[in-house]
């Protein structure tokens, strides 16, 4: 059986499961999440995305797809106007020198953030006795299911995921903000003569179809005189965005890293910068861990925080990033030159930055009125000294 037919069959079965799960009330979500934990399996690294030569991944793609769809159903179950709200307990600051675990797995994506984690690996091993391994991700939704299942210890995500997962009954914590958005890091690219207002009635490709990035686009489209409700957002893997733009499958694509360089190579034009203007000081990436892991392994979390903080400082050096993109990922000089420099600022996340994006999601109607959450309850402070 071909991959497409196999994946299609499994996706169909998952959609049937989603349909059945939509009827669940919020009180039944814990059973729903037990089902997700059973379905989710770790996926093998997807290094093909980041390299000049494709390296095809192995592992259980289909299982992660099923898990992601079930997780989506959990999040959508229950009355839309009755969000759960925050019930988190402030986490204790651990001792980074005495980690409870000897090995952890962190997800990575794009090129520059991977450089920061790469620089954190020797710090974690040499200074804190923690082996930090990594896994490439191209599907953020499937990656969330891996976090729930325990396949990933630390997930590179964003603040919006905290509310979405909590809405689905998954209790997570933000252990660090990996870097703040730098102009040009994530952009909306077009090949035709289009602007934000003219995207009404068009198709936009992105790795996710809900959440922080998409919502910022919705705001920008509306502010430009368009109507985001008449835009079709299509979810695609990182590695397929530029090709979809080139082949006319989408009219615009939200890209970063290698996919951004590929789009630029096609002669694309930037019509919106996710981290520009009023969004320039907002948190772009947040590291998530389950509340249970944080509670049971505070020292391991602290060791990861300290290693990541030091790794990010090193990776703020453009030369370090360029060497990583060339030596570790095999990017060409042309691609590296077109990649924006990212200013890494790793530390305790300011909940005010998360509140702004959350409020914008309510403004666009992505979240219903009354969708309140106290992000401060979900943030793990950095150790006082690393």
Molecular structure report:
- With 386 residues, the protein is of the alpha/beta class.
- The protein has helices spanning 3-21, 29-39, 61-76, 112-128, 140-149, 159-167, 212-223, 241-246, 257-265, 291-296, 298-315, 318-327, 333-338, 351-363, and strands spanning 103-108, 131-136, 155-157, 172-180, 186-190, 203-206, 232-235, 252-256, 269-273, 283-290.
- The protein has a five-stranded mixed sheet with strand order 7-6-8-5-9, with helices on both faces.
- The longest helix is centred in the first third of the chain and has 19 residues, at 3-21.
- The chain is globular, with a radius of gyration of 20 Å.
What is the fold's blueprint, element by element?
Blueprint: H1 3-21, H2 29-39, H3 61-76, E1 103-108, H4 112-128, E2 131-136, H5 140-149, E3 155-157, H6 159-167, E4 172-180, E5 186-190, E6 203-206, H7 212-223, E7 232-235, H8 241-246, E8 252-256, H9 257-265, E9 269-273, E10 283-290, H10 291-296, H11 298-315, H12 318-327, H13 333-338, H14 351-363
Parallel strand pairs: 1-2, 6-7, 6-8
Antiparallel strand pairs: 3-10, 4-10, 5-8, 5-9
Helix pairs in contact: 1-3, 2-3, 2-5, 3-5, 3-6, 4-11, 4-12, 7-14
